[in-house]
């Protein structure tokens, strides 16, 4: 499996978009990657549509240097995640080290709060287009945008090309 030596960290918080977390997690695992769910507390979080996610490690316990990629799912979770200093620090670590960052839908809020979008070409749900451009990003309405190590996508129907782009980038 082409990602058998890769480790991926995925943020979790209440009201994550179920498909935007689980589709990438499962596809990356099928490709051989080890995926770790990280959140503020060690507990079971629930997605917008009721799908549970059990946390593997807490934000205070995780060492981002152990991972090759970061996944930020959408839903309403990003609005909560961006309030945690640890989330901002972890996101900045991945950006500074030019490690893969995958963000979809409302996940752009986390990257905005981490202040890493200046001059980056991205997409997101159109609902946060203004937020993205006000953060200095170049926003485009396409299924997937890859700008260096940042891979962005709009919404659940775009998940197949989004996760393929992440897998391909990790396999390089």
UniProtKB/TrEMBL annotation:
Residues covered by the DJ-1/PfpI domain: 6-167
Keywords: Hydrolase, Protease
Superkingdom of the organism of origin: Bacteria
Gene Ontology MF terms: peptidase activity
Cited InterPro entries: C56_PfpI-like, Class_I_gatase-like, DJ-1/PfpI
GO BP, one annotated term: proteolysis
Family listed: Belongs to the peptidase C56 family.
Protein name (database record): Protease I
Organism, scientific name: Pelagirhabdus alkalitolerans
Lineage: Bacteria, Bacillati, Bacillota, Bacilli, Bacillales
């Amino acid at each position: 499996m082409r990602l058998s030596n890769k480790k991926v960290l995925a943020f979790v918080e209440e009201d994550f978009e179920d498909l935007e977390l689980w589709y990438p997690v499962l596809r990356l695992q099928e490709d051989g990657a080890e995926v770790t769910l990280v959140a503020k507390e060690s507990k079971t979080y629930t997605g917008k549509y009721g799908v549970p996610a059990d946390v593997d490690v807490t934000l205070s316990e995780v060492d981002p240097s152990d991972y090759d990629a970061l996944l930020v799912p959408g839903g309403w979770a990003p609005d909560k995640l961006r309030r945690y200093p640890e989330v901002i620090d972890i996101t900045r670590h991945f950006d500074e080290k030019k490690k893969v960052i995958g963000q979809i839908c409302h996940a752009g809020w986390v990257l905005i709060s981490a202040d890493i979008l200046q001059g980056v070409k991205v997409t997101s749900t159109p609902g946060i287009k203004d937020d993205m451009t006000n953060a200095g990003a170049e926003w485009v309405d396409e299924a997937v945008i890859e700008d260096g190590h940042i891979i962005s996508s709009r919404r659940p129907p775009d998940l197949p090309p989004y996760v393929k782009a992440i897998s391909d980038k990790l396999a390089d």
